[in-house]
Task: inverse folding
């Protein structure tokens, strides 16, 4: 098993080009700097790396396999491969960085983990890590998402976490982040804010990226073993961007590998409040302590956003994604709600794999990408970042009749 914590970026101030940094109050900056220093020290600690690697292998079930989706491949005329992060313990890629953050917090003497969650996958993963390490855990979650992702809420509570409803604003992911930050400011000494994606002030975009890089490192070796070559294309959904940067990270230097991030165009890409396509429609700005592309109004305040996928419903994005967009290394695309739901059912019914709605955005883009490659085809690797157990009640209620689900 391979871990890689050596990357060219960010710089020592946490910038990827012009994006990233740390825009937080001085008192909090002192605490965050302690986290940064502790992380820089611990990532070189052989005992820490050995413990994390052992947990990945014996607890999470890594390496996650790559599956050749033969029926989808035959339909779309390209070899489609799925990196099965949905098979991880807790059902998504989030456990990769949650274990790393929780171990770091424990070694720093923190007693409580706190976090935001949208779709609930980060919340479940952090609650799992907290239970494993004997720590308290508070999860902030918007009321809309609590109702929508009820199975994950129950899982968090079973694991011993306290799920705290967020009742202001749109009551979704952005407001959950606001609430978690407010709680963290109240006690940054005993609590550790385990940010759920490659967002937030430095060092979190770097730290979460590093823990997620195991996905790309594994995928690179697996594709070479399976096919004798690297994939021609890699596709991943992008909300905050942790699963995407995790798989992209091992291929950034390979010019032969095209990288594709997929954002939610929701119900209407041209209407404010009806999508969450940050990189496609946003502009640079500062939010939640870091600079990146964001959907904002003329006053620089975050716009209202929307996606059928609760985990993609965020008005900013990881700063490394903004940098990769600007230099042209990654192409960013959009997929609508209905296209994602179509892909959700297609993967379920053609390959027997029920994906998270977030991941279904990436699957939906594959059909368009494959069509653009005809007639030559090519090898497309998709990061299947999570499974859809959390979404089945919502999908059945909202789309059951349309897709012939029995009542």
Result:
């Amino acid at each position: 098993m391979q871990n890689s914590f050596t990357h060219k970026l960010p710089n020592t101030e946490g910038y990827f080009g012009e994006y990233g940094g740390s825009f937080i109050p001085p008192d909090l900056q002192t605490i965050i700097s302690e986290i940064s220093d502790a992380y820089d020290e611990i990532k070189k600690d052989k005992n820490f790396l050995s413990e994390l690697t052992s947990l990945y292998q014996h607890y999470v079930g890594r390496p996650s396999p790559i599956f050749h989706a033969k029926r989808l491949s035959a339909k779309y005329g390209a070899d489609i491969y799925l990196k099965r992060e949905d098979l991880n313990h807790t059902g998504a890629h989030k456990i990769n960085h949650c274990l790393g953050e929780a171990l770091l917090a424990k070694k720093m003497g923190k007693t409580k983990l706190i976090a935001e969650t949208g779709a609930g996958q980060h919340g479940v993963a952090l609650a799992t890590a907290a239970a494993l390490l004997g720590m308290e855990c508070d999860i902030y979650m918007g009321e809309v998402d609590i109702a929508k992702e009820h199975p994950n809420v129950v899982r968090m509570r079973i694991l011993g976490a306290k799920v705290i409803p967020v009742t202001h604003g749109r009551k979704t992911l952005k407001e959950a982040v606001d609430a978690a930050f407010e709680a963290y400011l109240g006690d940054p000494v005993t609590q550790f804010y385990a940010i759920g994606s490659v967002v937030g002030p430095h060092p979190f975009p770097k730290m979460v990226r590093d823990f997620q890089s195991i996905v790309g490192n594994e995928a690179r070796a697996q594709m070479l073993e399976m096919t004798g070559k690297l994939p021609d294309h890699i596709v991943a959904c992008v909300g905050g961007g942790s699963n995407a940067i995790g798989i992209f990270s091992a291929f950034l230097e390979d010019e032969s590998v095209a990288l594709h991030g997929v954002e939610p165009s929701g119900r209407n890409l041209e209407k404010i409040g009806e999508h969450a396509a940050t990189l496609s429609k946003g502009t640079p700005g500062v939010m939640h302590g870091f600079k990146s592309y964001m959907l904002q109004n003329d006053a620089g305040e975050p716009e209202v956003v929307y996606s059928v996928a609760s985990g993609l419903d965020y008005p900013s994005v990881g700063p490394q994604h903004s940098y990769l967009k600007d230099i042209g290394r990654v192409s960013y695309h959009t997929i609508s709600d209905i296209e994602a739901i179509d892909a959700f059912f297609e993967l379920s019914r053609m390959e027997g794999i029920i994906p998270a709605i977030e991941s279904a955005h990436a699957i939906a883009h594959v059909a368009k990408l494959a069509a653009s490659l005809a007639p030559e085809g090519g090898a497309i690797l998709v990061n299947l970042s999570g499974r859809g157990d959390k979404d089945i009640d919502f999908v059945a209620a909202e789309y059951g009749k349309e897709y012939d689900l029995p009542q």
Summary: Residues 45 and 256 are 34 Å apart (CA to CA). The first strand starts at residue 15 and ends at 16. The radius of gyration is 19 Å.
